[in-house]
Amino acid sequence: MNEVNQAVIFVGGFGTRLGKITKKIPKPLIKIKDKPFLDHLILFFSKQGIKKIILLTGYKKNFFKKKYHNKIFYDSTKIICCEENEPLGTGGALLNAKRFLNKYFYLCNGDTYFKFNLHDLKLNLKKNSLIRLAITKKTGNYKRYSTVSISKKKISISSNRKTTNGKYINSGYYFVKKRLLSKISKKICSLENDIFPKLVKEKKLEAKIYDQNHNRFIDIGIPKDLKRSQSFFSKKIINKAVFLDRDGVINKDLGYVHTKNKILWRKNIFRFMNFLKNKNFLVFVISNQSGIGRGYYKIKDVNNLHNWMNSIFLNHGSYIDEFYFSPYYKNSNSKIFRKNKKFRKPGTGFFMLAKKKYKFDVKKSFMIGDSVTDMQFAKNCELNGFQLKFSDDIMKLLSSIN
Hints:
Blueprint: E1 6-10, H1 21-24, E2 31-32, E3 35-36, H2 37-47, E4 52-57, H3 61-68, E5 71-73, E6 77-83, H4 89-96, E7 104-109, E8 112-115, E9 131-137, E10 147-150, E11 155-158, E12 168-177, H5 191-201, E13 205-209, E14 216-219, H6 223-232, E15 240-244, H7 269-278, E16 281-288, H8 290-293, H9 299-315, E17 322-326, H10 349-358, E18 366-369, H11 372-380, E19 384-387, H12 398-401
Parallel strand pairs: 1-4, 1-7, 4-6, 9-13, 15-16, 15-18, 16-17, 18-19
Antiparallel strand pairs: 2-3, 5-6, 7-12, 8-14, 9-12, 10-11, 10-12
Helix pairs in contact: 4-5
């Protein structure tokens, strides 16, 4: 499956359960911590490599068009508004956006925030399936959500909010194949009420469980939870981070690797990365690239390689939050590459930049490398350090960093 970099968000509802509040402003545009709730969603998707977001607008659609249409958010995520001229329901709204949709995309409700590893949702989807739901355990006032029962043999969904059967609730986040639209025959219809029951019978709907012990979920659909959302986004998030050396840890060290044809991936590296992101670890790569300073290759070559590597990780359900690399070489012919030695491992320059930007808990964070230099870097940064040979099974570290 190719990289999935598109998300679709339902923002066209009336928000009637919020009473007077949504008579003036659409629910997704209510400000939470000084910015619209929708902006929190856009940031969530942007951080996970989503480059295009389609807003399915209806109620007060001009509010969305003015603020978002054809604009770039967070440097790289473009927003497009797809308008409906009459209420179409979630199924109809999705069909109305057909011309904008990629072959595969993520889908969510514009009043729900669920922090989880988005790209894990697409992994190992059965060939016949058209959609996968992210589901989570019942918590709080779950009676207003559709409930889900899941077993090895079958899955069942109750879209009746009064029904409490089922161990899980539908989070409102989905991975979708565009072929799903062939199942939408009515101009006005609901995904949950009209389409999902058909897909369940045809065994074309899957669900995947995500544990809220490691994730965060809120729905601002009722006044009580709208009020709670202020504190929800105010909570200090204690992130954990893993720093990885590149050559020798992620891929085999063949000497001055700077092109994708020289990448030989470590065994189980994709499983390991998927584990880290499912546990909400930040993942950074810190690499010494003196080959730049030596004149063997250029900065743009390394950037291109890292962009490609991240696309491969995304295809396997994970991603690197940021690549850091030092072009420093003390005898470089270029004066600029003889500067900033502190950013070359075991110097702590990049660690300090990452710590300032991402604010993670150092005591719960790690460095994984293949050299004495990497372990000295870990010591200098007060990180737990693990030194591996390329032949070592990286999965054996899981018990140490869980």
